[in-house]
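Subgroup meeting minutes
Present: P.N., E.W., G.H.
Scribe: E.W.

1. P.N. recapped why we're keeping a running log of single-chain structure predictions: easier to compare across weeks, and new members can see raw inputs and outputs side by side.
2. G.H. added today's entry (259 aa).
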Amino acid sequence: MTYALTQPIDFQADKTMYRAVKRLFDIMAASVLLLLLSPLLLVVAVLIKLESRGPVFYAAKRVGEGYQIFDFYKFRSMRTDADRLLEQMKAQNHYGNSGQAVPQTHFSWDKTGDDLLVADEGYISENEWIMNKEAEEKKAFVKFQNDPRITRVGHFIRNTSIDELPQLVNVLKGDMSLVGNRPLPLYEASKLTSDQAIGRFLAPAGITGLWQVTERGKSGTSADSRKQLDVAYAEQYSFAMDLMILVKTPLAVFQQENV
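Output recorded in log:
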């Protein structure tokens, strides 16, 4: 089985039967896993509430297959005042200290305009969209060693990927599959519009995927290699590949990514 991109993606490939089997498998597996893991999920929820005030779950907008936007669920691993702490910690920013400037988004149009843009939830002013996008991109390039915004429980559930388990609900809803390309934050998805990169959005969004079981934890992993693996999965995915990824996922879960 090869992951090399040796041919153009077949946009007309008929995978109707595969999709039906995949969806049935997702529903059955996610239901069983939620039932079996319910004691663990309950304990984690209680520990999160005991350690810090705020909601147990965290929902963020993510972009999945076909550029569909949905609420992506995780256990909350940060303090609720993380944004305030972020302002106090700018001098400790891992990227800032490395001499690499935090990217800023520049637009050629007039930011004071009142033009309306079409969003999933309806219309949004162009000015509001610009401010939201700039805020997302600024947060995207924040990384700290021993980040104090993360709670003690948060460190544990992140290191063990337990924080990802609520995404089983996304699988039941049909937002995601157990296996696929990871859904991306809006700021990141908006940058992947080239003919090559856009192919990743032809595959289902997933909790685990080809990149997680082949590159996670390795030093020197680049954004380009991740894009290539995502496109390779979209081009070659099959039920056999999904099973291979699921078998390899437990070993990949405990590999730490380098900061």
